[in-house]
Each structure stands twice: as structure tokens, then as C-alpha cells.
Amino acid sequence: LILGVIACIGIAAMLFTLLFGFMTIPANSVGVRTRFGAYHDIVTPGLTYAIPYVDEIHIVPTQRLQKLEFGFSTPGAMNMYQGDPQPEETETMITGDLNTALVPWVVQYRITDPKVYLFGAREPEKTLRDLSESVMREVIGDRTVDEVLTIGRHDIETSTLKRLADLCSQYDLGIQIQQVQLTSV
């Protein structure tokens, strides 16, 4: 009788792990498997198995181009860091000739290293948001208001892109900056 009860508990546990351990990883993402909270391996898209209560799979969208908005917010954004929580404060900047300009912009990026993205910095998207704002203020602060409004837009975008890409690799964010684009200044 005791062996029968133990066998039933074993069979129930096995069925539980088989039924609830499978998950699907979308085609534009990879899974980072952690075992007991520590990095274990990278899982490719498709059907995969994770041992319940032992493994956890974090889905990281590596093939999707993501963006951060500064000075405005798109309603219904999927990423909690995409929209600007304080657009009025972010877009107001002082130029090199001590004028004020309203400078909204967008940073587009891709996650290139999912392991570094998850375990390198504590909040990589928040860090990227803070870095982007800092770099843009630095670049705008070196230019006159006329440059910001007219001929210097391309130079501002390329300078910000280069500086931001350097900082992302320096801070080990696992992110590659694709584009920095000024909207209507």
C-alpha cells in the first residue's frame, strides 16, 4: 500500500513536470535559461522545455528594433521605457549660446547579447535612457541654437550616435544603437 502511494505521487510529479515544463519562444527572440537563478544557456526560438521550479527562461527580443522616445510618448507602447514619463522636462535643453530649444528625439536599438543584457547592468533600458539624455544634452550644449534648428541636425545625430554606442559598450549593456533621430526641433 505504501509503495502504491509513493508510485502514484511519483507518477503525478512526472506528469506535472511534463505538462507544465514546455514553452514556446517566438521567432524574433531567444530564451536565456537560468537554472536556480544562475545563467545556464541560450535557447533558440521554438518549442523548449524547462524543468518547473528549477529552470526559468527569460525571453529576450533580439531580432526586433526597439526604440526610446524623448520629449513625447506614443500611446499604447509595449515597452515600459519606450515613452517619456516627463516629456516637458526632457525635451527642454540649453544650447551653447544660452538659448532654450525644445529637442524631441528617438533612439533605436537592438539587443545583441542577451546574456550581457540580462546580467550586465541592472536595468539596461533605464540606463540607456539616462545615457541618451545625458549625451544629447552634452551635444546640444556644444552648438548654437541656429545649428540645432537648421544645418547641424545631421551632425548632432551622428555625434550622439557615436558617443552613445561607445558608452553602451563601455557599460556592458548588450545593446547596439542603430539610429538617433531628431524629430521636429
Write up what this structure looks like.
By secondary structure, the protein is of the alpha+beta class. The protein is 38% helix and 28% strand. The chain is built from six helices and ten strands; from the N terminus they run αββββββαβββααααβ. It has helices at residues 2-20, 87-91, 114-119, 124-141, 145-149, 153-170; strands at 22-25, 30-35, 38-43, 46-49, 55-60, 66-70, 92-94, 100-102, 105-111, 175-182. The strands form four sheets. A three-stranded antiparallel β-sheet has the order 3-2-5, with no helix packed on it. The protein has a three-stranded antiparallel β-sheet with strand order 6-9-10. A hairpin with a 5-residue loop joins strand 7 and strand 8 (100-102). Helix 4 (124-141) packs across helix 6. The mean pLDDT is 88.
- Name the shape in a single word: elongated
Rounded average pLDDT: 88
Strand order of the largest sheet: 3-2-5
> What fraction strand?
25-35%
Encode the helix/strand succession as letters.
HEEEEEEHEEEHHHHE
Radius of gyration from the alpha-carbon trace, in angstroms: 23 Å
Low-confidence stretches: none
Helical region count?
6
Specify the structural class: alpha+beta
What is the end-to-end distance? 79 Å
Largest sheet: 3 strands, antiparallel
Helix content: 25-40%
